[in-house]
Amino acid sequence: MSTVADAFATRHGAAPTGVWFAPGRVNLIGEHTDYNDGFVLPFALPHRAVVAAAPAAGGRSRVRSVQEPGAPVEFSAASVVPGEVPGWAAYVAGTCWAFREAGYPVGEVELELDSDVPVGAGLSSSAAVECAVGVALAGLAGADVDPTTLARIARRAENEFVGAPTGGMDQMASMHGRAGRLVFLDTRGDTVELVPFDLPAHDLELLVVDTRAPHAHASGEYGARRADCEAAAAALGVPALRDAGPDDLPRIADERIRRRARHIVTENARVVETVRLLSGGADPRAIGPLLDASHTSMRDDFEITVPHVDVAVEAARDGGATGARMTGGGFGGCVIALVEADGAAAVTASVREAFAQRGWAEPVVFPGTPSDGAGRLA
Ligand code: ADP
Ligand code: MG
Questions:
Q1: Whether complex ipTM tops 0.90
Q2: Which of 47, 132, 274, 314 has the fewest Cβ atoms surrounding its Cβ within 10 A?
């Protein structure tokens, strides 16, 4: 991915000051728990956004993206405020704004962006862009900003500049990821613990299946789930569902709200149990039933799956997966499957066959390898 540095040099007649990157992520387990003060367990992917950057002469910043051909988007990084930059460049300008709001110096910049994180697949191409820009801004300013602070800046860009009311998992995973490790995040206080996840040592692989399901009503449904969780916490008189346990659930009168709460309560417990097993050196196959139970809970209690992901999960299990679940916010996106390394082809074939039978577009399958979080490339 030094192509982005080459493109920068060709365009500007000089090499960039530096090249920075930040990865997309996959969540192993812990879905919709992040906005309930709960636990999540993502890891950083080898897929990354890469940004070549240098200070810009004059009073304007410019950003180009290989994925958004056309004229560069211009704004003033030193003065931009929410509402001024629409579209994809809002993720970039928003990070400049949030970085400034956090009290760091921001001058005008030339940015050249490239990314191989699939867009809109639930692998967090948006956090990859924000975090890559965040580490670039810190690098250009010569500021030593810790990963959690940068993740919060990136999240603020997404929440307040782009206007997407997401939790903080994506940016924390993109900043804190490490090769061979999971990022165990307690979203109450944003504390991070790295958990070993050495699949090759156990002859295992984690397949990521991008179902390419058409996303339907995802943002509206997301808001509705958040509202249901708030209603559940209010019914129980707790600050967040993180503070509720299984014994509390019968106290929720409304049947739907009770099921929503049951997903969050049991999902938090599954994350904690997954961490306990893996930190204790258990064979990773032991987490298979937890992945399966997470999917059932998302399908029946939280109701965020769609036929494409349910079929992919079933077909992965039929093909021999040790465990499988939808990952990400739901209503489309990706499925993960824990598989024997020598059984990956059979699982892939099983999923492809199930999709072909239904006349659905072929899913994209690739190994999810826990990789390093954001940093400087050159
Ligand atoms: P995801 O699950 O991929 O994060 P989002 O809807 O949150 O999906 O973010 C996708 C949006 O992020 C894109 O529509 C685009 O605006 C922006 N984006 C992601 N990657 C790039 C890129 N390489 N160049 C420009 N914009 C990007
Ligand atoms: Mg996103």
A1: yes
A2: 314
